[in-house]
Structures are given as C-alpha cells and as structure tokens.
User: Fold this.
Amino acid sequence: MSAVVQTPQGQKGRPPAKPSPAAANAAAASFAALTAKLDYLEPADVEQVRRAYRFADEAHLGQIRASGEPYITHPIAVAAQCAEWKLDAQALMAALLHDAIEDCGVTKPDLIERFGAPVAELVDGLTKLDKLQFNTREENQAESFRKMLLAMARDVRVILIKLADRTHNMRTLDDVAREKWTRISSETLEIYAPIAHRLGLNQTYRELQELAFKHLRPWRYAILNKAVTKSRNRRRDLIQKVQREVESAFPEAGMTVRIAGREKTLYSVYRKMDEKHLSFAQVTDIYGFRVIVPTVIDCYTAMGLLHQIYKPVPGRFKDHIAIPKVNGYQSLHTTLVGPAGVNVEFQVRTEAMHVVAESGVAAHWLYKASQPDGDGADRLGTKWLQSLLDIQHETRDAAEFWDHVKIDLFPDAVYVFTPKSQIMALPRGATVVDFAYSIHSNIGDRTVAAKINGVQVPLRTELKNGDIVEVVTAPVSTPNPAWLGFVRTGRARSKIRHHLKTLAQVESQALGEKLLTQALRAEGMEKLPAEDEAHQPIWEKLLRFTGNRNRAELLTDIGLGKRIASIVGKRLMTLLAERGERPDALLLTRERFTAHENVSQGEVVLDGSENASVKFATCCRPVPGESIVGYLGRGEGLVVHTEECGVAKRLQHKDSERFISVEWADEPVRPFETSVLVTVSNGKGVLARIAAALAGAEADITHVDMGVEEAQDATDLRFVIAVRDKAHLDSVLRNLKRTPSVMRAQRVRPGSGSG
Assistant:
C-alpha cells in the first residue's frame, strides 16, 4: 500500500526507495497487500474476502485512478483500513465491492446471488450515500447532512467503510485536479471528520482534519509545519527531560505504566490560533504525553503522582472517566508546568480506554476479535459502549446495534429532503403535515395531499430518514381538526389550533349576527343598528350590559351560545326605544304570528358549509329532509339535533330558551353522516357483499363497528355512512334489505345510542 498511500502527517521519514511503477502497481493491486492484515479472521472468511477481491478486480479491469494506478488499489486500501479496525468479513467484502454497483454496471441482485444479502445491503447502502453527496452544498447544512448520513445508514459498518473510503481518497488527493481540492476538503472537514469524532474514531478524525487542512490551506499548512518542526527541534531536550523524569517516578512508586508522546495536529494548532487570536508562540500545549495504566484506580494514583512531580495549571484538570464524552471517550486530562515554565498536557487512561479513544465505535469489533468470551468488554468502562457490546454479543445483529448507536447520537430526529434537496430535521414520529408546517404555516394550512419518494401517501404517514417529501396544496383548502390527532410538532399543533379558532370566531360571529337580527325582528325591528356615530352610544350601553369589549366579541358570544340572543335583543330594543325608535307593528305581528309555525324569515338555514360554528349531534346524526332543532350550547356554538332525539327533548325540557329555529337549505352542499344497524346471518364474504351494496347505493362508509364478541350465527354490524338526504338514506336501506344474508337493516333511531 505504500505505493498508493501517501505517508500521513506525523510519521517520520519516507517509504524506502520506490520500485519501478509497473512493479509498484502490481504489488498494490495484489491481494497480498491485504492478506497480512487478515490474521484475525477464520480461514473460511479470508477465502470469502478473496472471492470478493477477485470479483472486484475483474469488475474494475481496465479502470485507472487519477494517479495512473489500477482502480483496484483503491478498494484494497479501503478494505485494509477496515481490517485495521478488525471489521468482519462481510464488511471487508463490501469495502472491496463498494464501487462495483456505481462504476461497473453490477446490480444488487448480482451481488446477492454471489455474496449473499448482507454484503449486497452494505454495498447498496454505500452507493446510496454516494448519491446523497451531490444533493446539497450549503455550508449551514453540514450538521444536518452529518446527521442524515448517520441516520440513513441502517448498519454502522456502512459508515465505517465510508470513512475508510474518504480517508484513502484524502490521502491520494494530490493526484486529483487542484480545482476539486476545496470542495472535497471542505466536505471532509464539515461532514466526515465530525462523524469520525462522533463515533470516537480519533485517529481517523485527526488524519482527515490534517489532510483536509493541508489541501484547503496549503500555504498556512506549510508555514505551521515549518514552525512546529523548528519548535520540536528547539524543545527536544526539554521534552526528553520531562519524559525521563516521569518514567523514573512511576517505577519508584511501584507502578507499571506505558508512556507515549503526543503532538497536537497542525489543524488543531491552527484552529486554536484562529479561534483565540493567538500567535504560534502563545500556543503552549503542542506537546503532551499519554500515560497508560492497568486499572481505573491506577489512573487517579498516576494523576496524583504527576501532580507531585510538576505543579498543575489551575482550572485545567478534566475528569472524563467519571463523566465520559458522548462518543464513549474516557481519560483524565491535566496540564502541568514543566521545566522552563513550559506547559505540558498529560492524558491518563487504561489500555481499554485507549482503544476506545483511538477506535471508538470500531472498538467493539476489536474486543470481539481479541476477547471472544466478552471479559474484555467489561474493561471498557462506559455504559454506552458497554450496552453496545452487550447487543453485539447477544444478538450479533448489526442493524440493532446501529439503531442503539443512533438513538444515543440523536434520540428523536428524522432527517428528510424537500424536492429541492433541502434537509429538514423533524422529531421521530413526525408526519407529512408536520413537514408541511415546518416549511411554512401557509403551506401547512393549504395541504391537501402528499407524495413520499414519488408515491402518493395519506397525510398521517410517518416520515422515515432519507424520505423525499412533496406536499400538494390547494388555495381553498383549510386545516382539518382531525390533524390534531396525529401531528407531533408543537408548531403544527399550534398553527392548526390557531386557524380553527380564528375560523370558528369568524363563523360564530356571522351566526351571532344572524341570531341577534332574528331576535330583534321578533321585537319589531327590521335590522341591527348600524355601527355609525349616531348609534355608537347604544352599542356602548349594550356592551356594558353584556360585559363584552366590542361588538364583534358580543356577536361571537351569541354565536357560541355564551349569550342568549332573545335577552340581548330585548335589551337592544329597550335602548332603541329610549332614543325614540319605534318597533314596526306589521313586522311585529308577522313575526309573532308565524314564529310557532317555524317559518320565521330570521331562522338559521343549514347547507353543510358551516364548519366550526355548527355541529351535527352524534347522538342522532340528522340528515337533510327530517325535522331538526338547534341548541345553543354554552361556548360550543350551535348543535343540531333531530326533532325526535331523546337528548334534545331532555335539553328542551330544562333549557328551552337556548333552542332556536333551524331548517335545511334546499340544496345542501355535502353529504351528512348517519348510523345504520345491519343484522346479518354470518358467513364467508358477508361484509364484502354489504360494502358492495352500500357502494352500489352511492353511500360512503366512514366507520364500521363489528363489536368485540365472537361472531354468532346472527351478527350486528354498525356502520356510519354519508348520505345526501332522507330519501337517499331510505334507498340505501332498501338496497341493504335486498342483499343476501341481511336479516334486518335499519337506521339507529334518534336517542337510541350513538352510531
């Protein structure tokens, strides 16, 4: 691999003198370069990986990388990185095949047939992530994009292979056209390096940052590199002195430790200088040491010893063992004042913590390989990684393992695309309606339909990671109260409620105006006094009487049944009379004469277009064509019952002044729901026959209740159906009675229970 991969920053020296290009290419493209790293696999697994290599080699035959090397060198390098993390055979096979679907015309079914479904799924997941890459370039979306990548991968191995792929591409970026450097390096810095950090892959995180910095800011990188090299030479004696003193202190205290030097990456030095506006000379913690000890108790003992040798810098001690980082990282950190007043940072950790710090999520495979009995897992010390290990050992299910990782990374997020590839983050369980309101309240209010990934879906459909959601709107559409039953976001809920409340207010105000006009006509006045200067004192006196702030609020209260129109009408008539306005005797006579005949001109006419201000009682479910009464419930607007309804009769008995005259319009604008009880002799296909009979009679079924008891020979089925009027209902019932297996069909009579 040395022929393909540049030596990462931080390694001393260069590879030995290069062999001829042809020999180097052949060596890099051979399976031998990978075999040495597969000693942790079973021989049968190594053979499987070899099969995948042969297939990939054949598929990429004739393809050349930008560097002039055979293309197969790239999949081999990616697989080698995955082998460093001790990933399983399936992951290594997917790493070798990861470009096969995209570049070589190989299909997913081909891979399933040759290598099995799990490998094909991994390769397919990688291909999908590659396609995603080009959907968005906005910098402020980087965080969402990172989450999207993590959330979309059904299997953690997909992300690990993707990171290995990106690492090798960054190592060989010098061979790519220079104009692509900025885009690829920015993407690496904003998206892939933070993913590596989030998963605890510290080495990969540092290397990706370093390589991205080198190609993004070549000039600054070169200058800093020079400065660090100079500083390293200048302070070599000092660092060696610290190392000698620390190394001799531990054996004297009877402790066995391993001490390793650590140097800050150029990128982290640059970032510290940039963020804190420091010069290079002011960055003091470029050099540091890692002290690796056997047990957790030893960590604290070692820390005490270090503080005996050198004075600690106040406020620079951090205990990440007691409180681990989210990605599972554990260590004690302290900064000490070394010789010549130079600050030196120390990190103290156990061997297990070190593995987690360097390999993060991949650590569970390292332990699985080295400690098959699971004892090593106990040493990981963090609950999060411990629970991941338990899942891995108990189920061997990568999907479940990754779900657990994702739940911890972002507990409640779902990431979806708009048709223009914007990424939207919504809570888990969010629906299409939540998505519409998250874009804009106007879009939410006017939503009528939606498509997910090009397929029409119901509005209550829950969104999944990676869905492309398209909302269809109509100018006349308004929010449906039923949406409140399934929306998840507070924004959608409050917008729907606000709209319904406003709608109810407007409608209730119109109804209130109608009712007050009707009450005033009964007192002999044709219409309400105008809102002009002449009548202003009258309205003010009336509002003082009712306790309302303004005319609109008074009319809304009348419409909602909070004020009784006849009482307000009488008071208004008194005030008008005080001003000298006299009732119209003819109108008074006509209104009083015809009121009992229920044909008063002021009564409320219903055509079904009333939304929030008028409710049709579910106890009797009235339909056009039958006699109805209107009850002004306190604060709930007008409730319409059939005249025969038992509930309405009881209300009339104790609250008669709240009943008003209502009638159906000549042509209602929509169907109305009513309840039907059908008794059937039970048998195969009986429900289908009844549904067909209802459809044949042009009645819509909105609800079916078959009861909870076991089916008897004769079973009662309750339907809620939508019909145009009484005549339509009669024809539906006739149709049902003619249907085979139906013994009886009848409307659930008013007052006999709900439908």
About this structure: Residues 490-522 form the longest helix (33 residues). The chain has six domains: 21-216, 227-358, 369-408, 413-480, 497-664, 672-747. The two ends are 76 Å apart (CA to CA). The chain has 31 helices and 21 strands.
